[in-house]
Amino acid sequence: MSSYWIDSINSLKNFDTITKNYECDICIIGAGITGLTCGYYLSKLGFNVIIIEKDIIGLKASGNTTGKITYQHNLIYDYLIHSYGKKYAKAYLDANKEAIINIKNIIDIENINCDFEYKSNYVYTTNQDELTKIHAEIEALHSLNEDVEFVTETSLPFKIAGAVMNKNQAQFNSVKYMYGLANCITKNNSLIFCNSTASDFQKDKDGYVTSVNSYKIRSSNIIVATHYPFKKLSRILFY
Ligand SMILES: Cc1cc2nc3c(=O)[nH]c(=O)nc-3n(C[C@H](O)[C@H](O)[C@H](O)COP(=O)(O)OP(=O)(O)OC[C@H]3O[C@@H](n4cnc5c(N)ncnc54)[C@H](O)[C@@H]3O)c2cc1C
Predict the structure, then answer these.
(1) How many domains, in total, are found in the chain?
(2) Quick check: is 3 in a domain?
(3) Computed from CA positions of residues 177, 180, 186, 192, in that sequence, does the dihedral angle turn out positive or negative?
(4) Among 29, 72, 125, 129, which one is least packed by beta carbons within 10 Å?
């Protein structure tokens, strides 16, 4: 099954493949939403960034999401409060609320057309026996001063037993958003290369050397944003 977001774009822009060695401030490996968001903020701050992507932008996890931007990740706050305490749960909530604001700010500042809309988010059950979990989540969120509601009606074409409804969440076309970020990055004295695979990186005295196809990128810092690590983490942690 293919992604609605990917299918909604007629043709995905293919950035050039790397054809020579480069030097830059920060080399970012992976052009999913993580790599592109880092690249956006860093290039905006004036760093010279190079992002390398082994495929083309948008085809991996970030282009295959449900496109929702929410702080409600399944039922999580009751679990966080009971496992780690209220302070930790509040920090998680605040960080995710801030992410919604940050994404909207980027969209507005950069005028990115990505079908962003504020929507309510629902986590529902059709099973009466699971309603205790929904109520526990609502109680947990109320204890964090969040205005959430228990509802039994949604626009779903089937009956539910109940749901937690969070207002002021959002949805967007994640692929359009990523190409919007990519366009901003290339306007900020930075580069993106696609079909360019990092096979390794090594620390040297002034920074890092990343091997990409048969070329090298020398940079002061690197960010690995490949979703799954492509290199043994134990070797990175010792640096
Ligand atoms: C079905 C599904 C639905 C989801 N729905 C949502 C949702 O609605 N809302 C939400 O917030 N989150 C959602 N998520 C989670 C979200 O998609 C991920 O957390 C996020 O997309 C991860 O982004 P990323 O940039 O880290 O990874 P990716 O988007 O996978 O990007 C990593 C990039 O690195 C590249 N790469 C890998 N190895 C190399 C290499 N050696 N050299 C160069 N490039 C390399 C890959 O090609 C890829 O483009 C969902 C996830 C799934 C699977």
Answers:
(1) 2
(2) no
(3) positive
(4) 129
195 domain-assigned: yes
Among 124, 148, 172, the domain boundary falls at 172
Residues 72 and 164 in one domain: yes
pLDDT exceeds cutoff 60 at 147: yes
Q: What does the mean pLDDT of the chain come to?
A: 94
pTM (two decimals): 0.94
Q: Would the CB of 17 count as within 6 Å of ligand 1?
A: no
- Among protein residues, the one with the nearest Cα to ligand 1's atom 30 is 61
Q: With a 6 A CB cut-off, is 35 part of the ligand 1 pocket?
A: yes
Q: Are residues 24 and 117 in the same domain?
A: no
Distance 128 CA to ligand 1 centre (A): 34
d(CA 123, CA 51) in angstroms, rounded, equals: 36
Is 106 found in the same domain as 92? yes
β-strands 191-193, 162-171: how paired? unpaired
The share of the chain scoring above pLDDT 70, in percent, equals 97
> How are the residues of the chain apportioned to helix, strand and coil, as percentages rounded to the nearest 5?
35, 25, 35
Q: Which domain holds residue 147?
A: 68-172
With a 6 Å cutoff on the Cβ, whether 143 touches ligand 1 is: no
Distance CA 36, CA 192 (A): 9
Q: Are residues 107 and 132 in the same domain?
A: yes
> Does the beta carbon of 180 lie inside 6 Å of ligand 1?
no
Is 50 exceeded by the pLDDT of residue 238? no
In a domain, 4, yes or no: no
- Shortest-distance Cα residue to atom 20 of ligand 1: 62
Name which of 22-26, 146-150, 233-237 the model is least confident about.
Answer: 233-237
